[in-house]
Design goal:
The complex is a heterodimer of chains A (about 80) and B (about 400). Chain A is globular. Chain A is mostly helical. Chain A has one domain: Non-ribosomal Peptide Synthetase Peptidyl Carrier Protein, Chain A. The longest helix of chain A is centred in the N-terminal third of the chain and has 16 residues. Helix content of chain A is about 60%, strand content about 0%. By secondary structure, chain B is an alpha/beta fold. Chain B folds into 2 domains: about 240 residues, Peroxisomal Thiolase, Chain A, domain 1, CATH 3.40.47.10; about 150 residues, Thiolase/Chalcone synthase (Peroxisomal Thiolase, Chain A, domain 1, 3-Layer(aba) Sandwich), CATH 3.40.47.10. In chain B, about 35% of the residues lie in helices and about 20% in strands. In chain B, the strands form 3 sheets. Chain B has a 10-stranded mixed sheet with strand order 5-4-6-7-1-8-14-13-9-10, with helices on both faces. Chain B has a two-stranded antiparallel sheet with strand order 2-3. A two-stranded antiparallel sheet of chain B has the order 11-12. The longest helix of chain B has 16 residues. Chain B starts with 5 loop residues before the first strand and ends with a strand. Classes of the chains: A mainly alpha (about 80), B alpha/beta (about 400).
């Protein structure tokens, strides 16, 4: 999977699940603020990534992923590992 | 301390007879049935494919994703009913933010959410994939936990689980809190999920009618040829308040909760008796302090089961004798709304009282030995009445009776 494909797919599933406009998802945007995530709904983001890409994000890892760019990099590294 | 008067200031409903009070009033007036045959249940191995038909409301645009994700279907029904009741009671968010408004809602299952969570855990062996909403959807108090957060309520906040009397007990208990000065206003009600998983085992014990060729004729409380109940659901909200509070804020005063009676059969887990319901009726009448001849209508619990209807007919006749007013079961139109029924049937009776009619006990064609002693109209009657009694009985022998007067 190319980075471009992964970005498109990630944005698509996140926009649909968290009911935001896809254009509002910017690479350097803050994930929590953009998707209006709280301590519960962030679990749904982790589950969504796991279901879509087969990539598990641990609790210690998710707290370090602040921007969408960081999320794409994390997923891509795991997918291509 | 002098006990305070408890009045009804708002109502809202989402049922198989309509999605608001006006639609439900019209359905009651015309004798519409909310029952259908659902072939999918037969494919799942159900003995009976009969059920009420109710659409799950789409709340996108009204509630955020982070609010909706914690709500199973019955919480969505309850939200719609409660929003209508709050509007009618003229209770806005500013008032709720600044007063201790309570919430007591009847609910006694949330099977669909539990089944889906367990299926995910078994299949995926990963609890994260169950999702953040599952725990809040899977608890019996799901309706009260959701509504209290959505409407930012600050008073008492708990779910009443009393089987098919849950909604009635919720109103009765709320009235006690107000009567004794512990709350000024309580949002009461009952909610019931409508999905196959929640009632599969109920079907398994042969409790449901199998008159599948005539769905709208299958629910026939008190009729000689009744053969079981039809599962139904939705939600109903009744806002009760101290008389002083209602007057102070110039709220519409619709009726007064005169009495709440209750009892336990202390008997079989599913087979009702005559003594328990009779004691609930007598207690309610005594608490109300009225002459039974003032009661102009009885909304029976009668679910269309052979034993239950017979024993309730006996209990009503034992208590009322020849002073018995018209008796009907609105379950002839709705099926059995179970955890919701005690609250919805107060609303059905209120709508009839306010509009001066008694809805037909549809499908009552031939009485049996006990129902023959009661006055059960099978056609709508235009009648003005000012006081009614509503019965609700449940598994485990829990009984609840309410008497309400028009204001």
């Amino acid at each position: 999977m190319t980075r471009e494909e992964l970005v498109a797919k990630t944005n698509e599933i996140l926009a649909e699940e968290f009911e935001v406009e896809i254009e509002d998802i910017k690479p350097d945007g803050d994930i929590k603020k953009t998707l209006e995530l709280d301590s519960l709904s962030i679990v749904d983001m982790v589950a969504l990534i796991e279901e879509t890409f087969g990539v598990k994000i641990l609790g210690t890892e998710v707290s370090k992923i602040k921007t969408f760019d960081a999320l794409y990099d994390f997923i891509l590294e795991k997918v291509n590992a | 301390m002098e006990k305070r008067r408890v009045v009804i200031t708002g109502m809202g409903i989402y049922s198989c007879l309509g999605k608001n009070l006006d639609e439900v009033r019209d359905s009651l007036y015309t004798g519409k049935s909310g029952i259908i045959f659902d072939p999918a249940r037969k494919e799942m191995g159900f003995r009976s494919g009969l059920t009420a038909f109710i659409e799950v409301p789409d709340l996108k645009g009204q509630l955020s994703r982070n609010q909706r994700v914690y709500m199973p279907e019955q919480a969505k029904y309850a939200y719609v009913a409660t929003a209508e009741a709050l509007r009618n009671a003229r209770l806005d968010q500013d008032y709720l933010n600044t007063h201790e408004v309570g919430l007591l809602y009847g609910n006694d299952s949330t099977a669909d959410a539990v089944v889906k969570s367990v299926d995910t855990m078994r299949e995926k062996k990963d609890t994260t994939l169950v999702g953040s909403g599952a725990i809040f959807q899977s608890m019996n108090s799901t309706v009260t936990m959701n509504l209290s957060c959505i409407f930012k309520l600050r008073g008492i906040n708990l779910t009443v689980s009393g089987a098919c009397a849950s909604g009635s007990h919720a109103i009765g208990l709320g009235a006690l809190l107000i009567r004794n000065g512990l709350q000024d206003c309580v949002i009461c009600g009952g909610a019931q999920e409508v999905n196959p998983f929640s009632i599969g085992s109920f079907d398994g014990i042969s409790a449901f009618s199998i008159r599948e060729s005539e769905p709208t004729k299958a629910s026939r409380p008190f009729d000689r040829d009744r053969d079981g109940l039809i599962p139904s659901g939705g939600a109903a909200t009744v806002i009760i308040e101290s008389y002083e509070s209602a007057v102070r804020r110039d709220a519409p005063i619709l009726g007064e909760v005169l009495g709440y009676g209750f009892s336990s059969n202390g008997d079989h887990i599913s087979v009702p008796n005559v003594d328990g319901p009779s004691r609930s009726l007598k207690m309610c009448i005594q608490e109300s302090g009225i002459d039974i001849r003032e009661i102009g209508y009885i909304n029976a619990h009668a679910t269309s089961t052979p034993v239950g209807d017979r024993n309730e007919a006996k209990a009503i006749y034992n208590v009322f004798g020849d002073n018995c007013p018209e008796v009907t079961s609105t379950k002839s139109q709705t099926g059995h709304e179970m955890w919701m029924a005690g609250a919805s049937e107060v609303i059905y009776s209120m709508l009839m009282m306010k509009n001066e009619f008694i809805a037909a006990n549809i499908n009552f064609e031939n009485p049996d030995e006990d129902s023959a002693k009661l006055n059960i109209p099978n056609k709508r009657i235009e009648k003005k009445f000012d006081t009614f009694l509503s019965n609700s009985f449940g598994f485990g022998g829990t009984n609840s009776t309410l008497i309400i007067r028009n204001l």
